[in-house]
From TrEMBL:
GO molecular function, one term: oxidoreductase activity
Keyword RNA-binding attached: no
Family membership noted in the UniProt record: Belongs to the short-chain dehydrogenases/reductases (SDR) family.
UniProt organism field: Streptomyces rhizosphaericus
The protein's name: SDR family oxidoreductase
């Protein structure tokens, strides 16, 4: 098995974006401690990585519990020096503000917001105790700064992550600790595919989301992983307290290009 000189914790690693990040970091020579509640998904991931000669360990736990983050950091330290804590675990869900279920809302906040807070705090505590540097990378969303119908609670939790990144960057920057948020648009994950299946016309549901981006397609999890690998690398040492948006141009759109040629206005015609 290949030896490594640095390691990272990746939460939500059993599937989707988290899995792609763990795979990319392992391929780049990191040891990865993979934290998730999905035992089978974690085993599938870490078995595949170790079979490939890479360093990976599964940590079954709930991100809403601070102890799970301490255990994951210990597991990462058993592989190599911990240089990164990467928070991915989250729920994407929505409901009317006039029809909220308290239990559901608290679960969403516990996972999306507090789960990131506990892990970030544990990583910072460890780095400061050891007088070492490190980077926190949190997966946010374009929803942190742009609204869609009936997703207020989800958007609130994602906006909180970007506030957390700014605070960490300002407070711990003097110690060489960085924090960066990565904000994807639509990403073709298993969870998103399941959400399409709830529509009367799943193909139309997917096409509607694809058409919101000038790129006219959804991102692949591997494309988000590539961005995370960059901001966690030594090449990004001066990037902190900020957000990297990866959305195919979605959040830049004021008015989408007309699909009907008859609806296209001639440039300069209004002068």
């Amino acid at each position: 098995m290949t030896s490594v000189s640095r390691s990272a914790v990746v939460t939500g690693a059993a599937s989707g974006i988290g899995r792609a990040i763990a795979e990319r970091l392992a391929a780049d020579g990191w040891g990865v401690a993979c934290l998730d509640r999905d035992k089978n998904g974690l085993s599938s991931l870490t078995d595949a990585l170790t079979a490939n000669g890479q360093q990976a360990v599964a940590v079954v736990g709930d991100v809403t519990e601070p102890e799970a983050h301490r255990e994951a950091l210990d597991a990462a330290a058993g592989l190599a020096r911990v240089d990164a804590w990467i928070g991915v675990a989250g729920l994407a869900d929505g409901e009317l503000l006039t029809d909220l279920d308290e239990g559901h809302v608290r679960r969403l906040v516990d996972i999306n917001q507090l789960g990131m807070l506990w892990g970030t705090a544990e990583a910072l505590r460890r780095w400061r105790a050891e007088d070492r540097t490190g980077v926190v990378v949190l997966v946010s969303s374009v929803h942190a700064r742009h609204a869609a119908s009936n997703t207020a609670v989800y958007e609130m939790t994602k906006a909180a992550l970007e506030a957390l990144v700014r605070s960490v960057g300002v407070t711990y920057g003097p110690y060489g600790i960085r924090a960066v948020a990565v904000a994807p648009g639509g990403v073709l994950t298993p969870a998103l595919e399941r959400s399409f299946a709830t529509a009367a016309d799943p193909v139309a549901a997917r096409r509607r989301l694809e058409s919101q981006t000038p790129a006219n397609r959804l991102a692949l999890p591997e494309e988000i992983a590539a961005a995370v690998a960059f901001v966690a690398s030594d090449e990004a040492q001066y990037i902190s307290g900020t957000v990297l948006t990866i959305d195919g141009g979605m959040s830049a759109v004021l008015l989408a290009s007309a699909c009907d040629p008859k609806a296209v206005r001639r440039p300069g015609a209004g002068k």
